[in-house]
Amino acid sequence: MIRPRLWRGAVAVLALATFSGLAGCGGAAGDESDPPDSPTARELDALALETGALPDRAQTDPAGRYGRRYEGGSDRLCLVPDGSASAGRYRFGAETRIGQDEYCRGRGSARRSADKLLLRFDGAGRDCLIVARYEGDKIVLPGSLDLNCAVLCSSRGSFAGVSFPRVDRDGAAAARMTGEDGKALCR
């Protein structure tokens, strides 16, 4: 039979060892003991890609339909290959709508660079360039945008911080995708 005093001591030692081990796993906020580019982080990322736990964004073509509907609005984005021999180049159309009167809409050309999509708008917004994050299952626009992008939006609309979840990878369906106005989004 284990004596209560010994039992409490063993539990304390076990708890201390557990917490010491956990401290090495993540650390406090701002802890730089295992930066994202460390060998351990690279090994974990490689293992996650190998097992399929994470999608390999480098191998996943971003072409397709993206979007969602929510109470009071919707977000849509289509991305289709531009037809040139150059891989990684696309045509896109994007629209976000909040209520009846607030919106952003634009079309243009896109280029993929690693896990980024460089979105350059045509027409009045041609001076607007957005560097979006491509995460395999969604495209995320940054929280702050160049002031030149304001011409694409109504008075209180904005593309800032909009996330477009992937609907499908069907390029033909993406080419047929329409905006709220019924016109082709990716032309």
Features:
187 residues; alpha+beta; Lipocalin; 2 domains; 8-stranded antiparallel beta barrel; 3 helices
In short:
This protein has 187 residues and is of the alpha+beta class.
Folded structure, characterized:
The chain has helices spanning 4-25, 39-51, 171-176, and strands at residues 64-70, 73-81, 89-98, 102-113, 116-121, 129-134, 138-140, 163-168. By secondary structure, it is an alpha+beta fold. The protein folds into two domains: 4-51, no CATH class; 64-176, Beta Barrel (Lipocalin), CATH 2.40.128.
> What series of H and E elements makes up the topology?
HHEEEEEEEEH
Which consecutive residue ranges, at least 5 long each, have pLDDT under 50? 4-24, 26-31
Specify the overall morphology. Answer: globular
CATH topology of the largest domain: Lipocalin
What portion of residues is helical?
10-25%
Number of domains: 2
Which percent band covers the strand fraction? 25-35%
SSE layout:
Elements: H1 4-25, H2 39-51, E1 64-70, E2 73-81, E3 89-98, E4 102-113, E5 116-121, E6 129-134, E7 138-140, E8 163-168, H3 171-176
Antiparallel strand pairs: 1-2, 1-8, 2-3, 3-4, 4-5, 5-6, 6-7, 7-8
